[in-house]
Design goal:
Elements: H1 13-33, E1 50-56, E2 61-67, E3 72-77, E4 80-88, E5 98-107, E6 123-130, E7 136-142, E8 144-154
Antiparallel strand pairs: 1-2, 1-8, 2-3, 3-4, 4-5, 5-6, 6-7, 7-8
Length: 160
């Protein structure tokens, strides 16, 4: 049985296959090495933007969260310093919660207030409910107030 004619006259079929495989491998490699994109940044007047502090362990340790208007955050907790990319709903749900999706992109590898070390790539989804004053919020595991931490208190006058 004769072999099929090459798809591109004058090009060796084995060479053409190698070229296609190289192109596929390059595409996969570029996709893996490209920085992960995140959702659009929050609205300029979003209530999450700013500096927030969570006191833990009866005030013996505090975490400071700096939510920036570009969709990134900087968190300090005991010896830990980490950076995240986040996305948050523009408006609260019918139940009054904002869905916050967060992914750690940098961490210094040191322990936080709980003694844990955050791993780069860790993702979390939480639900925030703001106090009517806009100066506090609770962070909950779902759109209910039964499993929450807080209050996170707004710190005015600190640089974001």
């Amino acid at each position: 049985m004769p072999s099929p004619a090459p798809r591109h006259p004058g090009i060796d079929p084995l060479l053409a296959l190698a070229g296609r495989l190289l192109l596929l491998a390059s595409t996969v490699l570029l996709a893996l090495l490209a920085p992960a994109s995140h959702a659009a940044p929050p609205l300029p007047n979003h209530p999450i933007i700013g500096v927030w502090r969570l006191s833990l362990d009866a005030g013996r340790c505090a975490e400071t969260y700096r939510f920036r208007d570009d969709g990134t955050s900087l968190v300090t907790s005991a010896s830990e310093v980490s950076e995240s990319a986040f996305a948050i709903n523009d408006k609260p749900s019918a139940r009054g919660f904002y869905k916050l999706e967060d992914r750690v992109v940098k961490d210094n590898g040191k322990p936080d207030c709980s003694g844990e070390v955050m791993q780069v790539g860790t993702s979390a989804t939480n639900y925030l409910q703001f106090h009517p004053s806009g100066n506090m919020f609770l962070m909950c595991a779902s759109e209910a107030l039964d499993v929450c931490i807080g209050p996170f208190e707004r710190i005015r006058g600190e640089q974001i």
